[in-house]
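User: Some background: our group keeps a shared notebook of sequences we're curious about, and every so often someone picks one and asks for a predicted structure to add to the entry. Today it's my turn. The entry only has the sequence so far, pasted here. Could you supply the structure so I can complete it?
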Amino acid sequence: MIGCMQDYFIAWWNLENLFDAEDSPNRHPRLREILKEELQGWNEEVLRAKIGQLSKIIVRINNNNGPDILGVCEVEDGPVINKLVDRITELLPRDYKIVHEKYDDKRGVEVAFIYDAAKFEVGKNNHTGEEQIFSHHVLRSEATRNILQVNFRLKTSDNTTLILIGNHWPARTIGELETECFRIAAGDALSYFHKRILEEHGKDTSIIAMGDFNDQPFNRSIMDHALSTPYEGQVKNAHENSPFFYNLMWHPMTNGEASYYYTRKDPGPCSKTCTTFPNMLDQFMVSRSVKFGNKLNVKEGSVRIIKEEGMYDNEHEFPIPKKFGRPTSCGQPASDFNMEGFSDHFPISLVLQEM
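Assistant: Of course. Here's the predicted structure to add to the notebook entry:
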């Protein structure tokens, strides 16, 4: 394979609350306390339906070959992600393995990577032999979600290193401005670890940061703190003490695409209409070596929002993701629970070329 161009299909998807069954004996007591009402009605039948819907899409992407690497978030810590992978491999003969962080998240959900072990392996420390998997804690006035870093090696080459950084930044639940400081803290952490990776592994290290950032590419947390930009010159000419990511999502965003949508009631006490707002919350960011390098780079035109048939609702002005939801909300039956849905986010994908 050495000397030949090799393509790798990499995707990211917020799976929207993939929990194990409510009565699962595998759940840590801490998670049982954290999740409480979120699990009501989440029985084995619902779990099977959710996994079935997700796996149906995952095996269809990449021309029905499935992804080479899939980053995910909103997955409960424990065996539930293994159940998802077991279902995927029943439909697709690939040797998928899992790397995930430990449950330090406030809601008991985590970031993980599902990867094809025939193409990738997790790198090991030359001195200790430990796998190079790092959960970077992000702290401010309270704990925010962690950042997961995995140092992969490409088996199809001369052990080329590809470092992936999975992100699931704090949500806007109580308001965008009210929660902005937590995402800024996450952005500062991502920028810091970008710099540290380059210091440890060399300036030409290939890095892809991906995730649900709960902010858009133009927000302060992304541009000013994570140092992620649409300007090629800013990436190419950045000082080594402040390296910039190149954000790949500006082009689809300016073409009117989005990975997430929310609907807000129009202002006015008598208004009965609502407006839908597209958001590019799910993003890929690449290091300078991926943007300009000659070893690994993103295939031209390969970045896209995955919208498979049946995944979205055609009744609105936008193709809004058909969410699965949960059986209950605040202890009451949920109006948006739909066992034929998938997630409230669309997956995103790119093709990485090895030259």
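Suggested note for the entry: The two ends are 11 Å apart (CA to CA). The longest strand covers residues 6-18.
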